[in-house]
Amino acid sequence: MLIRFKKTFEKIAMGLLSFMPEGKDLKKLQETIQLYETEENWQLFLYKRGDDFIGLIGVELLDDEAIVHHVSVNPSFRNEGIGKEMVLKMSSLIGNRTVCPNETTKPFIEKCIHPNEGTDL
Ligand SMILES: CC(C)(COP(=O)(O)OP(=O)(O)OC[C@H]1O[C@@H](n2cnc3c(N)ncnc32)[C@H](O)[C@@H]1OP(=O)(O)O)[C@@H](O)C(=O)NCCC(=O)NCCS
C-alpha cells in the first residue's frame, strides 16, 4: 500500500532515503526531506506492508511529466517486486503525466517502464 508522506513519517523516510546513492550525505538528506515537506509539486510516498514501512518513492510533478527523483526499498525486502510495484502504483496517482527518471533513477525506472528494451526479443 502506498501512503502519502507526512511530517510524522520524517525519520522513517530519511532512513529509506539514505539507501539512495547520495544518501550518506546527511546535509543533502535533510535538504531532500525539506523539499518534499515544503514544495507542493514534490511528492513522496511510502510503501507500507503490515506495520512496516519498507519502501519509498518520490516524484517532482511537472505539467506533463512526473520525474522520479527517489526510489528505495529496505535491503531486507529487495528483489520481491516492491520497487516495480511502487512505480506502477505511483503512476496511477499522477493523472495523465508521463513517468520519467532523473539520472540517478534511470536504470531502474527504464527497467520498470520498458522491461524488454535492450534485449533481443
Ligand atoms: C532500485 C531498488 C529500488 C529496486 O527495488 P526492488 O524492490 O529490489 O526491485 P524489484 O524487485 O521491483 O525489481 C524489478 C526489476 O528491476 C530490476 N532491478 C533492480 N534494481 C535495479 C537497478 N538498480 N537498475 C536496473 N534494474 C534493476 C530487477 O532485477 C527486476 O528485474 P526482473 O523483473 O527482470 O526480475 C532497490 O534496489 C534499492 O532501494 N536500491 C537502493 C536505492 C537506489 O539505488 N535507488 C536508485 C536505483 S536506479
From TrEMBL:
Molecular function via GO: acyltransferase activity
Keyword Metal-binding tagged: no
Catalytic activity, EC: 2.3.-.-
Class of the enzyme per the UniProt entry, highest EC level: transferase
Residues annotated as signal peptide: none
Keywords annotated in UniProt: Acyltransferase, Transferase
Gene3D superfamilies: 3.40.630.30
InterPro entries, A to Z: Acyl_CoA_acyltransferase, GNAT_dom
PROSITE patterns xrefs: GNAT
Domain of life (superkingdom): Bacteria
Listed CDD domains: NAT_SF (cd04301)
Residue span, N-acetyltransferase domain: 3-121
Name of the protein: GNAT family N-acetyltransferase
Organism: Chungangia koreensis
